[in-house]
Amino acid sequence: MSNWLVISVILLGLYAALRILLGIFFANIYELKTLKLKKGTAKPAYYHSFSILIPAYNEGKSIRDSVLSALNLDYDNFEVIVINDGSHDDTLNRLRTVQLEYPNLVIADQTNGGKSVALNNALINYAQYELIMVLDADSILSADALTRMNRYFQDRRVLAAAANVRIKEAPHFIEYVQRVEYFVSYYLKNSEIPLNIEYIIGGIGSCFRRDCLLKAGGYDSDTVTEDIDLTMKLLAYYGNTTYKFVYANDVIAYTPAVHTFHELLNQRLRWKYGRFKALIKYRAMIFNLNPKYSLSLSFWKLPKIWLEEFLMFLEPGFICLALFCLVQYGDFSTYISLVLLYGAYASFAVLNAEKLTLKERMIFFLTAPMAFLFLEVISLVDYLSLIRCLLHQDEIFKQESSWEHVER
Question: Where are the transmembrane segments (predicted)?
Fold first, then answer.
């Protein structure tokens, strides 16, 4: 029995270590591949036109900053469309004030219908340009976001591109945990592109070809995570062999952190509900031999998501086994290895990060050895979210387009 315990802990540790090492390896491959694209000074062959869509519901406190960050982008050919989804605070009044300063701002005012309905309204009835970029009303874009995003779409096979999202400010522990998580997870996103397994083009700063969105039918309204659902809808419709779903790691967007453990739990529960819904809805892609899907997506990534959720359910048992081995044999090697690996992972993420002040970079390097602890907090949140999903499975199928707000 004791040998089985030891072997179980060793195998789990090896899996975690292999995942990190492969993540670093493939992330660096993609970083090197896009280095010329990011650093190149040559003018692109073509300048696309962009329609930036900002859906908003009761975002009076943040809407001005978000809209101004879009209106003042360092690019020539774009439009900004804000969809006020029946807000009952001062969102619309603040938008009208901004419109006085920037008459080119387009405001679409509609009765409350949910985020997906708002985005479809703008996509079908207002957007005029080739590429659609989506921005949350509490988030902001870096000034060169469109200039850099334009370079990725020089490749006509690129259908969608995710932006690199960072936490705006993190003065407290739970917020800093999210900041570290975003750095590490978005660095890991680099590794998905060489393997062709990208399946989430996140909502903040995400960019799509407008004609492809319209042909696929736009956003569905039966989900609380419209970005996950849309990506899988596009994958199901177009596949990922002829078309490309990429990560624009130098296109930076900033979003606020949630401020308490309870808010974080509610946010991640919503995300998990939405991901389960999308995976079930588009389950036909799993183990699908249709050549429009890469084997790495249909036979590796999508099944692995289910496997990792199962392993997460068993995680408390593995932790107890690891603690038992630690006490029984006094072997700290597994823990030390994981701490070092996660610390190295966080350091790589910061080393390759752009647009960081010297102070921010130094703080990240100094706290990198604690990355394992920070990510364990997120693991606890994910585990609790999983348990709640299992206890309320019927809620997965009752979802409708809705709004998520961060307390400020």
Answer: 6-30, 310-329, 335-351, 363-386
